[in-house]
TrEMBL record:
<keyword id="KW-0413">Isomerase</keyword>
<comment type="similarity">
    <text>Belongs to the glucose-6-phosphate 1-epimerase family.</text>
</comment>
<dbReference type="InterPro" id="IPR008183">
    <property type="entry name" value="Aldose_1/G6P_1-epimerase"/>
</dbReference>
<dbReference type="InterPro" id="IPR011013">
    <property type="entry name" value="Gal_mutarotase_sf_dom"/>
</dbReference>
<feature type="binding site">
    <location>
        <position position="105"/>
    </location>
    <ligand>
        <name>substrate</name>
    </ligand>
</feature>
<dbReference type="GO" id="GO:0005737">
    <property type="term" value="C:cytoplasm"/>
</dbReference>
<dbReference type="InterPro" id="IPR025532">
    <property type="entry name" value="G6P_1-epimerase"/>
</dbReference>
<protein>
    <recommendedName>
        <fullName>glucose-6-phosphate 1-epimerase</fullName>
        <ecNumber>5.1.3.15</ecNumber>
    </recommendedName>
</protein>
<feature type="binding site">
    <location>
        <position position="110"/>
    </location>
    <ligand>
        <name>substrate</name>
    </ligand>
</feature>
<feature type="binding site">
    <location>
        <position position="87"/>
    </location>
    <ligand>
        <name>substrate</name>
    </ligand>
</feature>
<dbReference type="GO" id="GO:0005975">
    <property type="term" value="P:carbohydrate metabolic process"/>
</dbReference>
<dbReference type="GO" id="GO:0047938">
    <property type="term" value="F:glucose-6-phosphate 1-epimerase activity"/>
</dbReference>
<dbReference type="GO" id="GO:0030246">
    <property type="term" value="F:carbohydrate binding"/>
</dbReference>
<dbReference type="InterPro" id="IPR014718">
    <property type="entry name" value="GH-type_carb-bd"/>
</dbReference>
<dbReference type="Pfam" id="PF01263">
    <property type="entry name" value="Aldose_epim"/>
</dbReference>
Length: 331
């Protein structure tokens, strides 16, 4: 009884409808080694899809479709360790991205405890069961710069769609600039069978070549080795085609002009302690980001981004997918 009372008290604190949003104290055993005691929120959609969000890092650790198939990659060696980001899922990297400068690689927002945001204004308050608003305030955060900010993330689940709306507010008395990335680890059947369309002909920064700039020559991005690139001024719609699964992720974005494409391949995978040796075959990171031109915010100003991922089934058409159909035809 005492346990039940504290459970409903916790829901009350979260201001969630207990019939529709579940809060579980443990991360599911089925997600690799992520069995630590981390509060998570489970969003469900009437058609059967679901998403699991940790307050730690505001991290989305699972997104399942109506058929209960997992759409996000989670490392087989994923573990929770204080001050470390979880390898997999979707997380928001704020303030910096890449290993430039003296602050933490890919920002510190992935390894701090976020809270439920009771006042998401000026976004309208959430009145449906498949969304949640999270907030991370700079108070108490040992970040060198920016000093004072509020980082918000709205996560909304609907039939076949996962929508993220990140926002950053400058609560300092002087301007600051920042880089931002939504790091999406997508689950794929076999990286050698994956093709990304929408990034062809773009300029990119190659992180594996001392950040030199190149222009993409291929008519689609395919993978046969380590890849770590920032595609500049990428279109607002990108298709990630998994030939073997006959599934296409359609990634739409706004106010996030760059796209990071990362796969560590075998050598780097072995060097990463929280990634299984063969895990690289089942993942592709396609991040929606603002890196090349940092975002500048004056005091009290707010920046708002947008990302929507959906899946459509795709099939071969004489050995090739029609990129126009993938990018424009499946609405
Ligand atoms: O190990 P992490 O900090 O999570 O970074 C993982 C990867 O994220 C990005 O996609 C970067 O482009 C890579 O350079 C980096 O190695």
């Amino acid at each position: 009884m005492k346990l039940l009372r504290s459970f409903f008290g916790f829901l009350d604190w979260l201001q969630l409808d207990w019939r529709r949003v579940k809060v579980k104290p443990f991360v599911s055993n089925s997600r690799g080694m992520l069995q630590q005691q981390l509060p998570r929120i489970v969003l469900t959609d009437p058609n059967g899809s679901s998403a699991e969000v940790l307050l730690y890092g505001g991290h989305i650790v699972s997104w399942k479709n109506q058929r209960k198939e997992e759409l996000l990659f989670m490392s087989s060696k994923a573990k929770w360790k204080q001050h470390k980001a979880i390898r997999g899922g979707i997380s928001a990297c704020f303030a910096r991205f890449g290993d430039v400068g003296s602050v933490e690689q890919n920002g510190m927002t992935r390894n701090r405890m976020w809270s439920l945001d009771r006042d998401p204004s000026p976004l309208p308050p959430i009145n449906d069961h498949s969304s949640i608003d999270l907030i991370l305030k700079s108070t108490g955060v040992d970040l060198k710069t920016p000093r004072s900010f509020e980082l918000r993330l709205r996560i909304s689940l609907s039939a076949g769609n996962l929508i993220l709306i990140p926002r950053v507010r400058n609560t300092d008395n002087k301007p600051f600039s920042f880089a931002f990335s939504l790091c999406n680890y997508l689950s794929v059947s076999d990286i050698s069978e994956v093709r990304i369309e929408g990034l062809e002909t773009l300029d990119y920064v190659d992180n594996l070549m001392n950040r030199s700039r190149f222009t993409e020559q291929a008519d689609a991005i395919t993978f046969d080795g380590e890849t770590d690139r920032v595609y500049l001024h990428s279109p607002n719609k990108i298709a990630i085609i998994d030939h073997e699964k006959k599934r296409t992720f359609v990634l739409q974005k706004n106010a996030l002009p760059d796209s990071v494409v990362w796969n560590p391949w075998n050598k780097k995978a072995k060097a990463l302690p929280d990634l299984g040796d063969d895990d690289y075959k089942m993942m592709i990171c396609v991040n929606s980001a603002a890196i090349d031109t940092p975002i500048l915010l004056k005091p009290s100003e707010e920046w708002k981004g947008y990302q929507e991922i959906s899946t459509v089934s795709s099939s071969y058409c004489s050995g090739q997918l029609d990129p126009n159909k993938v990018l424009h035809g499946f609405q």
